[in-house]
Automatic annotation (TrEMBL):
This is Collagen-binding domain of a collagenase. Residues 376-465 form the Putative collagen-binding domain. Residues 38-373 form the Apiosidase-like catalytic domain. Keywords: Hydrolase.
Amino acid sequence: MIISKTIGRIITLVGLSFVTVSVQGQNTAKPLQKLQVSSNKHYFQTQDGKPFFWLGDTGWLTFGKLSREEINKYFQDRKAKGYNVIQVMVLHNITAKNVYGDAALVDADVSKPLTTPGSNFKNPAEYDFWDHVDYALDVAQKNGLYLAMVPVWGTNISAKDSKVTLAQVEKYAKFLADRFKNRTNVIWMNGGDTYGDKFTDIWNAIGSTLKKNNPNQLVTFHPFGRTDSSENYHNASWLDFNMFQSGHRRYDQDTLPGSFKEDNYKFVLRDFALKPTKPTLDGEPSYEGIPHGLHDTLQPKWKDQDLRRYAYWSVFAGGAGFTYGNNAVMQMYHKGEKKGAYGNKAIWSDELNAPGAAQMQFVKKLILKRNYFSRVPDESIVANQGVKYDYLAATRGTDYILVYTYNGKTMSLNMGKIKGAKVNAAWFNPRNGVEKAIGEFKNSGVLKFDPPGEKVDGNDWVLVLTSK
């Protein structure tokens, strides 16, 4: 069936060149608001000016491994948990097929997307790989989700035997721009776990083609671990915002000179000060359930507390959002598969309810509860700053201060950074989103605040100070 279907599609391509089909007509959901960079250039907003806090999930293999029914299940779950962006690969590899056996390309040539007229799900001769992508976009729209799509994963370009050419990617990027030009819930993530200083002609061609043909869709670059898009493309006209991959190694596993190691907030602080001003965020921290350092499956696995640390550290440093990741979900591991990557044995649908997956919504709610666009990072608030897991992340607006501790360390704070003679104080629990008032304090001098519980990694808290 698949063989005859593929032959029929090739014949169609020869006779009709590129036929772009879409199932958008089947979708009755209201289009999502277009996303924009905010007026202060540090954050995102919807086209009507409302704050948009990027809360992403890495569902990288959604298009290739999930059925229509599973896409519905996945997106509905992420909506319920407060996510609004799903990061996904369009082409994991140039021989990509979806769960129905539909190939994305003719002869593994990125300049030849395999499309067929029609989009009838019940007729396999009509329904193709790109219709499945359209279906996912429709379901995402119904659930208020934006899809941050990687056109072609970086290893397809960087491989020694790569046959992908500049001319091919230019045609492919134009195809993508044309096919999805009317979609308001598309974000483009150029690159894909790849070094930004290599194959720059390819990445610039993809980025500039997407941006030129559809300037209303945001474009960024997803780089290799412990690197940042700003290192190579900050001044590129096609790059709307920066993204870094803080990576999966522990402090002691990273021996690269100059590396920020686990200190992902340092990427944000650096990017926040760059000119021209652009938003930035951690697009790939350590995944929940993945081994420290990735490849040695005997190593401990990163836990929910580590994802919380990365989230609050980077957001309080001025990040425009945060992307969560789970080892099973990012690879959409199914029961019966031979072997999961990075030692994974968990089923993707079971891991939807991993502890960290539900906890990410609390940082989003905490930030959006206050004046969003006036928020800035301010390390000067902390009088007893520490290093590594003793680091205290601080951010403020005109009438509030938020300080995060990963391990329950006592905070000594320089007061008077916000308006008012007095402040109300509360402890916010990142594990469950509960905020408990602790009293009224003067807004001057240096004050100490001792979080609940013992000082131990994972006993994380946010001190909330608001002007009285």
